[in-house]
């Protein structure tokens, strides 16, 4: 496999569950049991009600592109081998928005409103990242 | 009339010039501003320095009092540094206001310098790519400052049916102001619409001309109490109102995607405090660092309908001679980006316009100016209103 040189996330105690799930090809979202809200990104306390009664729900992995850009220049050196890279904000069907990359298509092919599905790709031998691919509506 | 006034200012041209050191610039802007105000240096009782981005040595030096010591400011009672990203100057001015209205000081200086051109390009790109981006949820996906602003711009154009040409007209307006401003990196370098539309792609839809070129610069404001300003200054520039709204740190999870709602909140608060209507404002100075923010602002304050911001620019309304001149030093797009110092450049420009000293960019009869600044990747909207009388 070709290893990505990009920087990997610094995983914190509160986000460990998210990244553990990704390594098992699952996308999970933090959930507050007190106010029944989905939370992205994971935090130590619920930003809505300050409850610490937090857990995880498995997401469908499906979503819609809210916005998208193809970056040609201006990233740090670790990304230079991947340019151009397509970055998007994705509205997951579970009601939260996350940033990720759109893979499996050329530059400037992904469009706002495209339906996408999560895919899990290896950044290196030990770590996967959640990316998204365009799927038929 | 307000409780505080800008009674002096000085600025160095924004340039890429590593031979001009941080302390060279500080010496020029502080002595220049004191001379501009016509005051005695020992009348200065407070120093509030804008924290320059990516300048750790200077941050430590100025945080721990090297400015009053270096300049021999015998009257100084306190010294501090403020970092709120690009909103730092507004917060420095507000802190100066608190020091003055609490009786601690009559005269406070607010200096700033950033020298970025002696930092290796790779380090600088890395710093500005990472600094305002969430280290875990944005940066590992290749998100940069340009990339985040590109995502907002793309969505804005999609929702408002704004064309590439209409969006480029905002950059054209900013570059037009910058080309006539001797403090701008782009002074005497007018850009055509073709130049803008044919520039290389950075992050679609943003091209190189839409993004900020990093540069060096600096400025200094002298802020004084009402009594001191009346006694010592022929042309004080009075602070009339202030408004604030916080949006959130991480662009991907903000509800106020285009910053419109925060612009509405902070400008209406400032206008109410100043007892003014938006129609009373002669110039709108908008520090958003990217063209979409100029659109969102003119929509938010009601200069045009929501979604019509780029077309408002395309019609020429924000240019010199237009019905509502906006951002008369060109924002970071038309000026060059000096870290947290772009907001300093805005306040120097406010003083210039209200004193009739803005040269080829002077707006005739300018009497009330509203300026809004933002920090980080747009975490807040801080609005102040200034008047000449």
What does this structure look like?
The complex is a heterodimer of chains A (137) and B (389). Chain A is globular. With 137 residues, chain A is mostly beta strands. Chain A has one helix at residues 16-23; strands at residues 28-32, 37-39, 54-58, 62-71, 85-92, 97-103, 115-124, 127-134. Helices cover 6% and strands 41% of the residues of chain A. In chain A, 31% of the residues are buried. Chain B is an alpha/beta fold and 389 residues long. Helices cover 38% and strands 19% of the residues of chain B. Chain B has a 9-stranded mixed β-sheet with strand order 3-2-4-7-1-8-11-10-9, with helices on both faces. Chain B has a two-stranded antiparallel ribbon with strand order 5-6. Chain B starts with a strand and ends with a strand. The chains are: A mainly beta (137), B alpha/beta (389). Chains A and B meet through β4, β5 and β6 of A and α5, α6 and β5 of B.
- The radius of gyration of chain B is 19 Å
Termini of chain A, distance in Å?
31 Å
Number of strands of chain A: 8
Gross morphology of chain A: globular
Low-confidence segments of chain B = none
Order of helices and strands of chain A: HEEEEEEEE
- Helix and strand content put the structural class of chain A at mainly beta
Report Rg of chain A: 16 Å
Q: Approximately how much helix is present in the residues of chain A?
A: under 10%
Strand content of chain B: 15-25%
Termini separation of chain B comes to 6 Å
Helix content of chain B: 25-40%
Which stretches of chain A of 5+ consecutive residues score pLDDT under 50? none
Number of helices of chain B: 14
Number of strands of chain B: 11
């Amino acid at each position: 496999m070709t290893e990505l040189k990009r920087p990997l996330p610094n995983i914190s105690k509160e986000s460990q569950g998210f990244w553990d799930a990704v390594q098992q090809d699952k996308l999970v979202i933090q959930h507050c049991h007190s106010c029944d809200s989905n939370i992205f990104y994971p935090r130590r306390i619920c930003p809505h009600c300050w409850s610490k009664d937090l857990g995880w729900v498995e997401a469908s992995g499906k979503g819609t592109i809210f916005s998208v850009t193809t970056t040609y220049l201006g990233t740090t050196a670790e990304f230079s081998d991947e340019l151009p890279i397509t970055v998007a904000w994705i509205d997951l069907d579970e009601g939260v928005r996350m940033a990720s990359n759109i893979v499996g298509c050329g530059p400037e092919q992904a469009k706002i409103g495209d339906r996408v599905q999560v895919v899990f790709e290896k950044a290196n031998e030990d770590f996967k990242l959640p990316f998204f691919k365009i799927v038929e509506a | 009339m307000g409780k505080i006034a800008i009674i002096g200012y000085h600025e160095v041209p924004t340039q890429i010039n590593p031979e001009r050191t941080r302390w060279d610039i500080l010496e020029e802007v502080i002595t220049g501003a004191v001379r501009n105000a016509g005051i005695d240096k020992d009348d200065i009782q407070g120093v509030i320095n804008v924290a320059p981005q990516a300048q750790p040595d200077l941050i430590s030096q100025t945080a721990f009092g090297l400015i009053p010591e270096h300049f021999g400011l015998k009257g100084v009672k306190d010294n501090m540094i403020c970092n709120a990203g690009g909103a730092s100057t507004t917060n420095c001015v507000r802190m100066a206001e608190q020091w003055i209205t609490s009786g601690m000081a009559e005269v406070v200086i607010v200096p700033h310098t950033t020298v970025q051109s002696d930092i290796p390009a790779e380090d600088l790109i890395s710093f500005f790519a990472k600094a305002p981006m969430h280290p875990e949820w944005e940066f590992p996906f290749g998100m940069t400052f340009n990339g985040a602003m590109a995502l907002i711009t793309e969505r804005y154009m999609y929702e408002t049916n704004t064309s590439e040409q209409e969006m480029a007209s905002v950059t054209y307006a900013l570059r037009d102001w910058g080309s006539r401003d001797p403090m701008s990196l782009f002074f005497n370098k007018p850009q055509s619409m073709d130049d803008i539309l044919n520039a290389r792609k950075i992050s679609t839809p943003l091209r190189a001309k839409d993004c900020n070129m990093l540069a060096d610069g600096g400025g200094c404001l002298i802020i004084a109490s009402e009594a001191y300003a009346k006694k010592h200054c022929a042309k004080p520039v009075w602070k009339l109102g202030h408004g604030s709204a916080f949006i959130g740190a991480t662009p991907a999870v903000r509800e106020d995607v285009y910053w419109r709602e925060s612009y509405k909140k902070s400008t209406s608060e400032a206008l109410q405090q100043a007892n003014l209507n938006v129609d009373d404002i002669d110039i709108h100075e908008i520090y958003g660092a990217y063209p979409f923010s100029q659109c969102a602002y003119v929509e938010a304050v009601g200069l045009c309908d929501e979604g019509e911001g780029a077309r408002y620019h395309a019609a020429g309304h924000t240019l010199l001679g237009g019905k509502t001149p906006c951002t008369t030093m060109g924002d970071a797009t038309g000026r060059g980006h000096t870290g947290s110092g772009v907001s300093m450049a805005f306040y120097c420009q406010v003083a210039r316009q209200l004193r009739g000293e803005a040269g080829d960019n002077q707006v005739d009869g300018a009497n009330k100016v509203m300026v809004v600044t933002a920090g980080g990747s747009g975490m807040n909207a801080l609005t102040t209103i200034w008047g000449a009388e």
